[in-house]
């Protein structure tokens, strides 16, 4: 499959999303021809932030988390933002989506705090990941291996996990997503 024939799901809470960790994959994948759906907790506007502090861009979600299914997509993207992921990691719809993607053998890409969702979904055990250093202990306590790297791609347990640490790593992160979709 090529990027331009793929369907990508990006999931977020409606506020606290790290702006570039959402907008770069969203815009770059759309520009490459992917059909990208932004799903949020509600259909209210999604308020992003820069560095968890400064007001960022506001986006309109395409769907609610409760209305999308993993079977309709080829890859899942989980952007960071401390407040964003702190909320979706306890959201049953987000947890179920992540579990369904993994159980269907579909790739999941998580940047910065995004891997927190995968910890709560019980998907990190046996995986190597490179999220932000602030959740390294969470990754290890969940049975995963944390590495401080711009990009880690792990195919263990029957599904591909793509992780990067921070916005500075977005070139690597988006590149790996495109590769997973058949660039």
Automatic annotation (TrEMBL):
DJ-1/PfpI domain: residues covered:
7-177
Q: Which GO terms describe its molecular function?
A: transferase activity
Has UniProt tagged this entry with the keyword Transferase? yes
- Does the keyword section mention Cytoplasm? no
Taxonomic lineage from the root: Bacteria, Bacillati, Actinomycetota, Actinomycetes, Bifidobacteriales
Q: What is this protein called?
A: Type 1 glutamine amidotransferase
Q: Which residues form a coiled coil?
A: none
Name the InterPro entries for this protein. C56_PfpI-like, Class_I_gatase-like, DJ-1/PfpI
Going by the UniProt record, its keywords in alphabetical order are: Glutamine amidotransferase, Transferase
SUPFAM superfamilies attached to this UniProt entry: Class I glutamine amidotransferase-like
Pfam families from the entry? DJ-1_PfpI
């Amino acid at each position: 499959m090529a990027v331009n024939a793929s369907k990508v799901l990006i999931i977020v809470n409606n506020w606290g999303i790290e702006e570039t960790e959402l907008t770069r994959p969203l815009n770059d994948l759309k520009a490459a021809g992917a059909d990208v759906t932004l799903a949020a907790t509600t259909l209210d506007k999604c308020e992003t932030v820069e560095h968890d502090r400064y007001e960022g861009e506001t986006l309109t979600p395409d769907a609610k988390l409760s209305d999308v299914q993993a079977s309709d997509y080829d890859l899942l993207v989980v952007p960071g933002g401390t407040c964003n992921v702190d909320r979706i990691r306890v959201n049953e719809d987000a947890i179920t989506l992540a579990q369904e993607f993994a159980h269907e053998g579909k790739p999941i890409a998580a940047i910065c705090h995004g891997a927190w969702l995968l910890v709560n979904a019980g998907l990190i055990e046996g995986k190597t990941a490179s999220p932000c250093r602030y959740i390294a202990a969470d990754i290890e306590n969940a049975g995963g291996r944390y590495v401080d790297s711009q990009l880690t791609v792990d195919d263990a347990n029957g599904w591909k996990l793509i992780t990067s640490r921070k916005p500075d790593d977005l070139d690597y992160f988006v590149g790996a997503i495109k590769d997973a979709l058949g660039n």
